Amino acid sequence: MRTVYVNGEFVLEKDAKVSIFDRAFLFADAVYEVTSVLNGKLVDFDNHMKRLHRSMKELNFGTKIKEKEFLEFHRKLVSLNKINEGIVYLQVSRGVAERDFAFPPSDTELTITAFTQKKKLIDNKTAKEGITIITVDDLRWKRCDIKTIQLLYPSIAKTEAMKKGADDAWMTQNGYIMEGTSNNAWIIKGKTIYTREADNLILSGITRRAVIEVAMKLNYKIIHKQFTVQEAENADEAFITSATAFVTPVVKINNTRISKEKPGIFTQSLREACIQQALATLK
Ligand code: PMP
């Protein structure tokens, strides 16, 4: 049985308790981060903490977090649960208060929880064979740049995709691809890589930033511009990025095969470079 983290304590998952009045439970008033673990160490931890700070600031969470403390309990969870490869899920909620739409006082204590999951991140089926995607309408709110736990629509979209025999969904607005249910969306046409600008309508992925860096080092041309469903279907290669997927090839979009259903060469080189980059950030 796993050991999890709840407000400063390490407890068996069966003994972990959070109040039913917690604002995460009542209002999805919480933010989260998912940090990958490779070789028993944390990938890109500092950038995850930066984004967590930003999410909390955008939502006016009163209390600040102590980064050093967060690093320590992440490391301890990894070690207690013997995670060599997998993830740490971290959630910070505004805390416990009587149910009311208005925010509670700014000194309300945050609820901080975390747990681990073992997962094969590097050597897995989707990395080798790629994933298939359908496109669906993006019905989310307009602050997708904040990493909140309001994930019901992405959850509906992914379930819909799986019902239709696909692995995941890319969400669209006015014919343009925004992002995946839990990943950023990319296409390659010729020798150019396209990724949508990270504004308020998508999450600025930690992996997205790492891949931009890596691609620049490799002298690949990147254009930060949104692309249509049709452009995606006509792409030479396509892929997703996220902390857990790194770079994972997309081999089919709706009914159109991309790069003859085999992961493309550019995508593969980006995946390898992205993993090397991740290994250089281990903490
Ligand atoms: N977009 C969305 C909607 C996501 O949920 C995620 C994963 N949390 C990402 C993009 C990718 O972000 P990251 O690379 O930081 O995992």
What does this 3D model show about the protein?
There is one protein chain. This protein is of the alpha+beta class and 283 residues long. It folds into two domains: 3-118, D-amino Acid Aminotransferase, Chain A, domain 1, CATH 3.30.470; 125-279, D-amino Acid Aminotransferase, Chain A, domain 2, CATH 3.20.10.10. 29% of the residues lie in helices and 29% in strands. The protein contains eight helices and 15 strands. Strands 7, 8, 9, 10, 11, 12, 13, 14 and 15 form a nine-stranded mixed beta sheet that branches. The chain has a six-stranded antiparallel beta sheet with strand order 2-1-6-5-3-4. Helix 6 crosses helix 8. The longest helix has 15 residues, at 265-279. It is globular. The protein starts with a strand and ends with a helix. The protein binds 4'-deoxy-4'-aminopyridoxal-5'-phosphate. The site of 4'-deoxy-4'-aminopyridoxal-5'-phosphate has 13 residues, from helix 6 and strand 13.
Primary descriptors:
single chain; 283 residues; alpha+beta; D-amino Acid Aminotransferase, Chain A, domain 1; D-amino Acid Aminotransferase, Chain A, domain 2; 9-stranded mixed beta sheet; 29% helix; binds 4'-deoxy-4'-aminopyridoxal-5'-phosphate
